[in-house]
Amino acid sequence: MRHGIVGQIGRTPLVRLRRVAGPEAGVPEGVEVHAKAEHLNPSGSVKDRAALAMLIEGLQAGALVPGKTILDATSGNTGIAYAMIGAALGHPVTVCLPSNASPERKRMLRIYGAEVIETDPLAGTDGAQHEARRLLATDPGRYFYVDQYNNAANWRAHYEHTGVEIWDQTSGRVTHFLAGLGTSGTFVGTARRLKAYAPEVRCISMQPDLPLHGIEGMKHMPTAVVPGIYDPTIADAEVTVDTEDAQAMARSLAREEGLFVGVSAGANVHAAVRLARTLPPGSVVVTVLCDAGARYLTDEFWNGTPA
Known about the structure:
Rossmann fold, four-stranded parallel beta sheet, alpha/beta, six-stranded mixed beta sheet
């Protein structure tokens, strides 16, 4: 299974942030902030890991068989990962996503050959999930419904790989892990693995500060349908991020670190830097660069104007 393009998923670099998270940014000397460069996965996001794990499990269980269409709800990135892997494996893909997803995401999905069903933007990914389940009910024999929000293979992909890579790349020095919540798979799986290595590692979850926000892929948990794989007991602390702060950090990462990434990555790094300012020397903070910035090129915030 790990052949061709899918064999290139994972094993992403861990990048030290020296300017946006250096002394000039208020981070004390001796405190390090690192970012897992998940935007360098083949389809451009961290979701390649979970998509591959969930599809492998479907194949091994005999649920995903030749001729079946891969179906799921998505904010965009997991759908693009399905579309890439589906194209490589010869499976058609249908995704339901909110109509306000970026034009670049929709175009990428269609370039890979996926069928895109746009749903009510005000209902977010919750509405996309309802539509995916409706499609499944109308023709259950046609679809393999992945159900990323409730599929345990999602978080296990990060338990088995992402967390292991972070531990190895920091030589076990990581003291804090911070990541945003969407399906919650990245946070849940990585945090569980790091705590298995060292229970004293502090794991902090991040989410947008408001129900209506511009951090694509992230959920405001108090007002959203909570994913079945989410375990709130794992987080040692919870933080929120304002959309404009996330956008500003995305711009800074491009201009000061040479990292062209999306707003969710900006939110993660903003929260990680804010945390790092409070920590003693010797602390090593790790966060995640969720996806590539090219899928948001038409967004006005790149010019300093909120989207």
